[in-house]
Amino acid sequence: METYRLETPNGGLVVKLSVDGAEFWLSIESADDASLNVQPLGGNSVRMILTVKNPEEIFNQAIKAGASEVFPVGENHRWKLGRLVDPFGLHWKIGHPV
Q1: Average pLDDT estimate for 61-75
Q2: Nearest 5°: CA angle at 32, between 78 and 75?
């Protein structure tokens, strides 16, 4: 179920979904987004937010498993959040609201 949606005028999209109480966020960047540096899969890229209580621990596990850091876990926009790229080229934000 979609519980939040934000569409930007330049084509960006952010949605929060809930499946049996498990919540996760997805976003599609617009073509003119300066941070767009991912190779599209099937014509699009997607960025996901994994909400966890211990973002530093999960972030570090992902790095040890082969992910690459985009930016470390820090606080911004009322979130404690870090961003990485998995070995398949998908961007993940790992964190939680503060």
Answers
A1: 95
A2: 15
Domain extent for 80: 2-97
Six-digit token string for 45: 């890229």
14-24 b/e (C-beta count within 10 Å ≥ 16 → b): bebeeeeeeee
Taking alpha carbons only, the member of 34, 48, 91, 86 closest to residue 65 is 86
- The CA distance from 72 to 90, in Å, is 16
Q: Using one digit for the tens of pLDDT, what is the confidence trace for 20-43? A: 777 778 877 666 655 555 555 555
Burial environment of residue 63 by CB neighbours within 10 A (0 to 12, 13 to 18, 19 or more): middle
The torsion of the CA quartet 57, 68, 19, 44, rounded to 10 degrees, works out to: 170
Tell me, what CATH number does 52's domain have?
3.30.720.110
Query: How many distinct structural domains can be found in the chain?
Result: 1
- In a 10 Å sphere around its CB, with 0-12 CB exposed, 13-18 middle and 19+ buried, how is residue 60 labelled? middle
